[in-house]
Amino acid sequence: MNTRKPLAIEALNLTKSYGENKVLDGIDITVPEGSIFSLLGPNGAGKTTTVNILTTLIPSGSGDAFVGGRHIDKEADEVRKLIGVTGQFAAVDTLLTGRENLQLMGRLHHLGKAETRRRAEELLERFDLMEAAKRAPSTYSGGMKRRLDIAMCLMGDPKIIFLDEPTTGLDPAGRRTVWSIIRRLVKGGTTIFLTTQYLEEADELADKIAVLDGGKIVAEGTPEQLKRLVPGGHVTLRLHRADQLDRTVGALEATGSDPDQLTVQVPSDGSVHSLRKILDALDREEIEVDEFTVHTPDLDDVFLSLTGQTTAD
Amino acid sequence: MSTLAYSLSDTGTMLRRQIKHMQRYPSLTIMLVGMPVVLLLLFVYVFGGTLGNGLGGVTGGRDAYLFYVTPGILISSIAAVVQGTAIGVAMDMTQGIIDRFRTMSIARVSVLTGHVLGAMIQVFICVAAVLGVAMAIGYRPEASALDWLALVGVIALIGFGLIWLTVALGMAADSVETASNTPMFLILLPFLGSGFVPTDSMPTVVRYFAEYQPFTPFIEVTRSLLSGTAVEGKELALTVAWSLALALLGYVIAKKKFNKR
After folding, report:
1. Which of A110, B31, B170, B216 could crosslink B86 through cysteines, CB 3.0-4.6 Å?
2. Alpha helices in chain B (DSSP H)
């Protein structure tokens, strides 16, 4: 049909509005097969809407999108055969047991009895759910529920997996488990589309990150490329005496200062050379410093400078 | 497998899901059965003596009323079961798993047909239980083997119509609370028909309504079959037509609501 083979996901000028409210304002996405793509953004940026459109849950407003080379609106059922979805809220049947949930998925994928049973047991084992297999998910911890959720979307052996904020609400240990699950999946050749509001998570997992804000992609690239978008890091000084603030700003060519906190920000790439220059200037001017912090750029800076928002945690 | 085979397989899977739900939470089914049983006992033992005398038969009294009211209670019990259907559908739609179903390559309507078939099982459990209680307190149906067979068909048909209607009400409801209220009028309809007293004893306006609403032919056909008398062609035709019309209406609305999100 469509020969867009090397790309697992492609979106071209995708939009979505609810009445006057423009949720997605023309976004382009390309995700090569077998890679992890992360859509990063604050709450309300349009992440879930993007996932819902790409997974055929809601129709797009305008623009085109292909998943596995199939058009999401015109070939929705073909797309559904290729994908696995784990939404923000556990998509499990709360009245069935963990094992029954997996078997339900197997039957809906028409796997056959023996194969359904075999794969369900394998996933229960792999996701450490064997002991909980006979219980209803209402008795599970958040992490267990999420693992069951991901296991359910793997029953159909999908080529492309959408994970909408898969670690939101999990404790650090649960989050690490989900991360290692995701890494293992990609090793097996699966393509992952991941949304998150945690920069650390995108940094940790993604081959490519797109920062979504107000329905627009405001930056895109590898984690390293994004970090380079923010020019250098800085050093924060906390002064001892208020009367030395202006002199410090002048002597160090500071980019910012806070008279209440007595702090001064000086651009620096964190190298020994640049630090020595700052220390020398401080000596020369006889400025008393209480605290000296070197801040190298991370994705938080990128996020902050691109979206003008503080992050969730 | 063909598309049809897949959708039958998916429907079977969804029905199994509903049966598991019922097994795990039998209290809902028991409650649905309980209501018409209470209704039966109440009407027979509290009102039955007086109402039976008013029927104008040869014997009169409680026994005559038991014979008259049982078919009405049986149809009421279908109306009671489908209350639960609307609630079940509305509750299911709040579950995250429905969105998962929507992103899977399955016959979409199977989610709904699973509910319909599950409710059908509840209808038969409930009708059988109510009939059992009625017989235990002295009801003696005079139906032939063929009548019984026809009765199963008629109950299935009426159930089919009312279930699809309430599936649609469950889908259209914006909350579980709404879904538990909207089908309530169905419980009243047997009272405003020939279920509890003959319609010719009613004032003109009520009688007019009673004669043209679907529950009157439903009850009349059931009553004829159980008493072993000939079923009137007009009542049977109305029963078939009403049931199919309600089913179609419910199906169209429910399907539309399910696909729109």
Report:
1. B170
2. 3-24, 26-42, 48-54, 61-93, 97-102, 110-136, 145-172, 176-181, 185-188, 204-212, 215-227, 233-259
Interchain CB distance below 8 Å, B21 and A91 = no
The answer, as to whether pTM is greater than 0.95, is no
Beta-strand (E) ranges in chain A? Answer: 7-18, 21-32, 36-40, 62-67, 70-71, 83-86, 160-164, 191-196, 208-213, 216-221, 233-239, 256-258, 263-268, 289-295
| Domain count of the fold of chain B | 1
Q: Is there a contact between B20 and A156 if contact means CB atoms under 8 Å apart?
A: no
Which residue reads 């149906």 in tokens?
A: B141
Q: Which domains does chain A have, with CATH numbers?
A: 7-228 (3.40.50.300), 231-296 (3.30.70.100)
Q: Which residue of A has its CA nearest to B97?
A: A91
pLDDT at A103 over 80: yes
pLDDT tens digits for A157-179? 999 999 999 988 888 888 899 99
Question: How far is B80 from chain A, CA to nearest CA, in Å?
Answer: 23
Which residues constitute the domain of residue B222?
3-259
pLDDT in tens, A126-135: 999 999 999 9
